[in-house]
Amino acid sequence: MAKEKQIFFCRECGFESGKWMGQCPGCKSWNTFCEETITVGAKKQSDRRDAVAPTSILEVQTSDETRFSTGLEELNRVLGGGIVNGSLVLVGGDPGIGKSTILLQMCRNLSENGYRVLYVSGEESLSQIKMRAERIGTFTKDMLLLCVNHLEDVEACIKKNPPKVIAIDSIQTMLVEDVPSAPGSVSQVKEVTARLMQIAKQMDIAVFIVGHVTKEGTVAGPRNLEHMVDTVLYFEGDRNAGFRILRAVKNRFGSTNEIGVFEMTKTGLSEVNNPSKVMLDGRPVNTSGSVVVCSMEGTRPILLEIQALVCQTNFNLPRRTTVGLDYNRVNLLLAVLEKRAGMVLAGCDAYVNIAGGFRLDDPAADLGIVAALVSSFKNKPLEEHLVAFGEIGLSGEVRGVSSAEQRVNEARKMGFQTCIIPKSNKENIKTADGIQVIGVSNIREALEYLC
Fold it and tell me: What predicted TM-score, i.e. pTM, was given to this entire model?
């Protein structure tokens, strides 16, 4: 006989425990355990399905992925070229970052191309969605709205008239009547996602679901939610800033290195086709501590401005502050400057920032960070039309980076005249017309040219 059992789940990471605990052993969060009732018990033998025989991989017939455009080139880039039929996509991000807006714009473009789209909202009414949609533009009759919280209602609507794309806003508001727990709980989120996955695979419908995030920036609910879906997209950026970065952290149908850049306007999210130009707008001239680096985001080179401020400290322990860069990486580069370049920075505060609200994890930015720190420390402005990139090791060597020729060409197209790169990369650059390329093998050579 099946019986009910009380289990405690962590709301942040989905950790399961038989008793309540103040701190979750999985994610170390406090007061996140909630009690839920589950049904346990062995099923009858007659309920089991017949065994399915395995198939040889040589007998499996394959076909090319069928993709169709979202109408947003930046979103197509992140998805790997467009929407794949039968895919399940999770879109996460902070409140107000633009998750619902970009899905509504995508649905509008698809409906204009003749695709039937179903937009399901469990948070807003029909009139509220219409008010938000009027700011984006005009819609066609193929754009269908459904404001319900029960997944059974959504399934009935899909069976009656199957759409091409379904958008669920959001997964935390949907519930299944068979699961005796509140919407947004671990059990509900897992069951709703599992059913949506069956709908996507069996009926060949592309499903987009919006997921709320925790204070750490991860999707709320069980961690295996991200493992169940095909693609996970995250919106990055400050909600008070104008620019948004859409990044894929998981993609079964494309690369996870691509990003999409958008600008929030009064009519919705506008695509930024030339991020380098936008990120360098307002760059100061003849100011110390400012240098431009070239980062590779997938197949796209992007020019970014690194700003550094080095000043004498008033405390016993110097302060180190970074915005948009890895804190430990900047500390490592400061130590390399002291040991290999002979610069005394132990008594100085160091503040390093990426202008424009961008986050940079590319190790090729090391040479740019060092150049900005030295420029601010010596209070000597660098050349206005200078770009520097290269990875720096602990012995002070400047190591080669990938896609060096693409980075140099991007700098040349943006009007820069000098490019300082690793010496090992300079030998492989075939064409560099219109820009002076200087190869350096260690930071001493780089500082000799810069200072």
Answer: 0.78
